[in-house]
User: What shape does this take?
Amino acid sequence: MQSLTDAEWAGVATTLAAELEDAAGHTYDLGKFHSHGGYHAEDQLIAALPGPAPAGHYRLLIVINRSPCSDISGIHKATGHQPCMERLIDLQKNGIGMTHTFELVVNYRHLYGHSNEERALNSLGVQQGSAAGISFLHGEGYYDVGVAQAVSQMET
Ligand SMILES: [Zn+2]
Assistant: This one.
């Protein structure tokens, strides 16, 4: 699968690279997707599925610079955009087109959001995804002290 560049890891745009892997270990590179114009990188990935892969069950590996947006913070309610975490949970549970099913593995570097509070709320979105069976790996940005403080304040 493709790698993210340093500029993409740190960029304002959400960028992801993805591939499918079948039970025999054969992989299908799905390429790289960037957010633009209110159309999130995850939306574009879902639109591109299943790519070249024949009907079957696959591990869907997503490497992405920030965690999928969730509805918990409410920041997308005004735009009507369906939160990417909801779409990925639907993909994990239902697959697509009666022909392809997926086990999602999402490797992200930072939590989504413009403030510590938003990032803390979106960490709960990641927990929703985990509860639905999605596997998450996270980078150093997950351990941001400000986010931990915001979560702590939410719990009081
Ligand atoms: Zn999104």
